[in-house]
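ARCHIVE CARD
CATEGORY: sequence design from structure
SOURCE FIELD: tokenized fold
FIELD CONTENT:
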């Protein structure tokens, strides 16, 4: 009797079909999460500038927590997909159990920051009422961080077995609950910024409970977590962390890169430059949603193909995912450029911000261009994650965000004297060149795998 779930059959079936079917739920999850972040900011904004600043100052620390747990989830997804591709369900189950044990350890580390949170926030620049608000918000989120870690790692388990629909259900349900709870807890219950924190934690609790039910009390998942049959393995820990840690560091690298770009903008432009670049980047961020969806699906599909030692299928998944992503991004770029004037109005509707309208329109007609080439790099990252080479994926991210992007931004802005426009040109050119190099590297690795397997 075939005990494989629909997700596993899709995962191990035709790669083109698998890439599309598994990526759509991830895209929907990412879109809803992006909208939730936007709504969350809108509700908190009603509390005043101090509350917005408090959450802003806590965000770097929160982003670090999320990056570590998301990285662990990606490492888990890759390792499980490879075991399923190899036809070893028992080891896939063991990988899932290992990932939750590691998640528990990570949760303990994050919880330990609770007692040093005031000092950490002070180092990040919080003081006075902003520090008080940041502490109120941060302590609640840190106390509930175990649910954040569990949710991200559990989603990695589901994605690894091709069960992206259930991970979508959990994420979308949590995000919608958060959107609904924000106004109730912040304003109706009168909890203020604490209400925003409780809404975030409760949404994660709800998502986690759904996943716990599916994993432990329902037979709808293929991979089963069993602590009774848990068999500690250094190799499994290595397989998870070899992809997971570089993935986490890659996310942090992207954040640090934006910090340096902002610092360069401050040197060559006024505060208006920061406002323009930040606003334009918010628009560009929507262009990453389909790429990240295809990347998440690609990691699992290529991981399963690699586990089965079917390099021809792996290459088909890689090329098809890139083809689909490039087409989608080309359409989005045309839309962004064509609608630049209208998009800029969302950020310049007030009298105080109207002066940056023209500058923002010009930036929106240049910055999104690199999105057409970005799939070459992002899907190559998912290729390396899928075959368990997290260090290669990390190298591509560093090459893109630090080496090329920052270098060209500096050259154009300072050495060529182009100022703010030079930074925009540098970011675009740096991303295009890094993505092209990554694609050539990916093709070279696939060629080598073919020679080794055949």
């Amino acid at each position: 009797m075939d005990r494989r779930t629909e997700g596993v059959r899709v995962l191990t079936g035709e790669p083109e079909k698998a890439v599309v079917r598994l990526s759509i739920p991830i895209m929907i999850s990412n879109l809803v999460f992006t909208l939730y972040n936007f709504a969350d900011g809108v509700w908190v904004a009603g509390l005043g500038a101090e509350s917005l600043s408090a959450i802003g100052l806590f965000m770097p620390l929160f982003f670090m927590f999320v990056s570590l747990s998301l990285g662990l989830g990606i490492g888990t997804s890759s390792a499980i997909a490879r075991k399923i591709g190899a036809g070893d369900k028992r080891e896939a189950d063991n990988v899932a159990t290992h990932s939750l044990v590691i998640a528990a350890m990570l949760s303990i580390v994050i919880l330990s920051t609770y007692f040093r949170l005031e000092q950490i926030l002070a180092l990040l620049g919080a003081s006075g009422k902003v520090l008080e608000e940041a502490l109120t918000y941060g302590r609640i989120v840190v106390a509930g961080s175990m649910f954040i870690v569990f949710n991200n790692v559990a989603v990695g388990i589901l994605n690894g077995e091709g069960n992206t629909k259930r991970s979508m259900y959990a994420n979308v349900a949590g995000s919608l609950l958060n959107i609904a709870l924000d106004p109730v807890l912040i304003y109706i219950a009168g909890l203020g910024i604490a209400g925003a924190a409780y809404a975030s934690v409760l949404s994660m609790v709800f998502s986690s409970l759904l996943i716990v039910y599916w994993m432990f009390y329902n037979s709808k998942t293929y991979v089963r977590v069993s602590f009774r049959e848990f068999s500690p393995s250094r190799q499994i820990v290595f397989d998870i962390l070899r992809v997971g840690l570089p993935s986490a560091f890659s996310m942090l690298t992207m954040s640090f890169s934006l910090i340096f770009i902002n610092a360069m903008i401050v040197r060559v432009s006024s505060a208006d430059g920061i406002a323009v670049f930040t606003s334009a980047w918010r628009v560009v961020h929507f262009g990453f949603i389909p790429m990240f969806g295809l990347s998440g699906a690609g990691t699992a599909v290529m991981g399963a193909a690699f586990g089965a030692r079917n390099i021809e299928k792996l290459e088909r998944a890689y090329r098809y995912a890139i083809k689909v992503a490039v087409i989608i991004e080309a359409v989005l770029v045309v839309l962004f450029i064509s609608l630049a004037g209208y998009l800029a109005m969302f950020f310049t509707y007030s009298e105080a911000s109207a002066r940056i309208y023209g500058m923002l329109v010009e930036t929106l007609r240049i910055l999104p261009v690199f999105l057409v080439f970005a799939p070459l790099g992002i899907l190559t990252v998912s290729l390396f994650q899928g075959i368990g080479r997290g260090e290669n994926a990390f190298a591509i991210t560093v090459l893109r965000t630090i080496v090329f992007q920052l270098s060209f931004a500096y050259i154009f802005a300072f050495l060529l004297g182009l100022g703010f426009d030079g930074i925009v040109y540098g970011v675009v050119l740096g991303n295009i060149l890094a993505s092209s190099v990554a694609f050539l590297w990916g093709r070279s690795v696939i060629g080598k795998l073919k020679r080794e397997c055949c």
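CARD ANNOTATION: The mean pLDDT is 90. The chain is about 80% helix and 0% strand.
SHELF: design records, drawer C
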